[in-house]
Design a protein that fits this description.
mainly beta, Jelly Rolls, nine-stranded antiparallel β-sheet, seven-stranded antiparallel β-sheet, 4% helix, Allantoicase
């Protein structure tokens, strides 16, 4: 068994030092959606939460003008501001937002503000408009055709955000980066503790040349090879790996390793190990042969609780999805939820 501590720092990529590396809680890929926009004359606000990067084709016109891959409101002729309200796909603690004005040059808003709201259930737009919102980013200047990054320091859990642009214009994407904090009342007794929507996150990986390891923790099935984690080809005797901080301490009972779409580039073998401290690692799934383009399901019984998991692939290749099903330790999710939800 190789010593995990022996992995050279030169091949270890620590993630999460910058809020922009955290998951986009508003992404459509996690279930986010635009529930209200006061104006979307030129381009629909639904574009704001698309997980794909915005694109632009010059001199592409429809009956309302140049086509933009973003939200664009008409030109105001009186004082005011335009508003879009987004339901987060994964409610949680927001660490920062990215107001991306890509390709909006002469028609971007000069200023924007972001507010947050925490509500239960599925409120109507009128209820959201009448609610008391918490300021997260004050009215701040924007640059055109740029990513405008704003850190957020509020430690509370939010379910919705409100983007206000002053006075009008176009925004390509709104990315709301943070850590998911699920409501434990909405989770089954056994669930995927490696899922982003449940609060898990990638902490380190050896290589992400072709695809970010965060893709493995996304909901649903991978749509294509680019919707997974893939490393470059190794020309040495080492192997690639990734570590995950689990949503809650848990004893893993089922490991899913899905190589769907990876046909000539699936790993030959894999191991999964767990740790309670990120240092002392134990076997969850011993070295096991994998097949290309195949969802693999392995029942396991490590009989130890893990807070972190490490997937090693041998020697390299691609993985579409990683699922680690387990029963969380008692009260851990409830305590986390109460810590970030005042009055709960």
């Amino acid at each position: 068994m190789e010593d995990f501590a022996a992995v050279p720092d030169s091949v270890s990529r620590a993630l999460g030092e910058d809020f922009a590396t955290l998951p986009d809680l508003a992404s459509r890929a996690l279930g986010g959606g635009v529930v209200h926009a006061n104006d979307e004359f030129f381009a629909a606000a639904d574009h704001l939460v698309l997980p794909t990067a915005p694109v632009y084709a010059p001199r592409t016109f429809d009956h309302k003008g140049q086509v933009y891959d973003g939200w664009e409101t008409r030109r105001r002729r009186e004082p005011g501001a335009d508003v879009a309200i987004i339901r987060l796909g994964a409610p949680g603690v927001i660490r920062g937002v990215d107001v991306d004005t890509a390709f909006f040059t002469g028609n971007y808003p000069p200023h924007a503000a972001i507010d947050g709201l925490a509500v239960e259930g599925y409120p109507e737009p009128a209820e959201l408009l009448a609610a008391s919102w918490t300021p997260l980013v004050p009215k701040s200047p924007l640059k055109g055709d740029s990513r405008n990054l704003f850190a957020v320091t509020d430690e509370r859990r939010f379910t919705h955000v409100r983007l206000t642009i002053f006075p009008d214009g176009g925004v390509a994407r709104l990315r709301v980066h943070g850590t998911a904090v699920p409501d434990p009342r909405l989770l089954p007794e056994v669930f995927d503790v490696a899922a982003l929507v449940n609060g898990a996150r990638i902490t380190e990986c050896s290589n992400m040349f072709y695809g970010h390891p965060e893709n493995m923790l996304m909901p649903g099935l991978a749509q294509h090879m680019g919707d997974g984690w893939e490393t470059s080809r190794r020309r040495d005797d080492a192997n690639d790996w990734v570590t995950v901080r689990l949503a809650a301490p848990a004893e893993i009972t089922l490991v899913d390793l899905d190589t769907t779409h990876f046909k000539g580039n699936a790993p030959g073998w894999a191991t999964v190990r767990g740790s309670e401290d990120g240092v002392d690692w134990f076997d969850i799934l011993p070295r096991t042969a994998l097949r290309p383009d195949t969802p693999h399901h392995f029942p396991v019984r490590p009989e130890r609780v893990a807070t972190h998991a490490r997937l090693d692939i041998f020697p390299d290749g691609g993985m579409a999805r990683l699922r680690l099903h387990g029963r969380p330790a008692a009260n851990t999710l409830e305590e986390q939820f109460r810590r970030h939800t005042p009055g709960s």
